[in-house]
Amino acid sequence: MRNYSIKAQSLIDWDDEQKKDMDKQKLKEISKQVVINIDDEEKGENEDQILDQPSIEINGWNGNKGRSYLYGLPLLDPVTDMEIDDDAFKEILLRIQLVERELQTKTEYHTNEMKIGLSIYKHKLQLQAQIQAQERYIAKSKKMIFEDELNAMTAVLKRFFRISYKQRKMWL
């Protein structure tokens, strides 16, 4: 018999809040050894089927070839996971958390007026994006017109032999 050991964690019985609260320490504690036993006689198709199945999940990641995360990419804490020790950065994170808490506790945040205001603001952003797209289109059109006029002027000057070949290349 062959033993294939895979360090894995069973997330099947967990609810979403437990999955979100899981950190590295809990992952190490909950991890267990999964042993897949395959007889030498039964290897072949059976072995490939067992090893290719995405039945083992590690921190929301299933082991299939697509490398997809079932619950989205895991959120990283910049201070603990990425080991950022900058005091100014920590202060900014603290301020952001305080503002988010204040915003959630305010009653104005949950009213219909706020929702209407947000929808109006989103519509305004969409209109601004459309305006910028039209301005880019106008600029591109003006550039094309200018290039056509420049080519026409160059052709006229070529007829009168007023410019040399090097000067024509410099303009175009």
List the helices and strands and how they pair.
Elements: E1 2-8, H1 16-21, H2 24-30, E2 32-38, H3 45-52, E3 57-58, E4 61-62, H4 87-105, H5 112-159, H6 165-171
Antiparallel strand pairs: 1-2, 3-4
Domain Exosome RNA helicase MTR4-like beta-barrel: 71-138
Protein name: Exosome RNA helicase MTR4-like beta-barrel domain-containing protein
Organism: Streblomastix strix
Task: List its traits.
mainly alpha; 55% helix; Beta-barrel_MTR4; two-stranded antiparallel ribbon; 172 residues; two-stranded antiparallel sheet
Model description:
- Helices cover 55% and strands 10% of the residues.
- The protein has 172 residues and is mainly alpha-helical.
- Among the domains are: 61 residues, no CATH class; 50 residues.
- The strands form two sheets. Strands 1-2 form a two-stranded antiparallel ribbon. A two-stranded antiparallel sheet has the order 3-4.
- The longest helix has 48 residues.
- The N terminus is likely disordered.
Question: Gyration radius, to the nearest Å?
Answer: 32 Å
Q: What percentage of the residues does DSSP assign to strands (E)?
A: 5-15%
Q: Residue-averaged pLDDT, rounded? A: 70
Instruction: Give, in spatial order, the strands making up the sheet with the most strands.
Output: 1-2
* Largest sheet features: 2 strands, antiparallel
Tally of separate helices: 6
Number of DSSP E strands? 4
What is the H-and-E element order?
A: EHHEHEEHHH
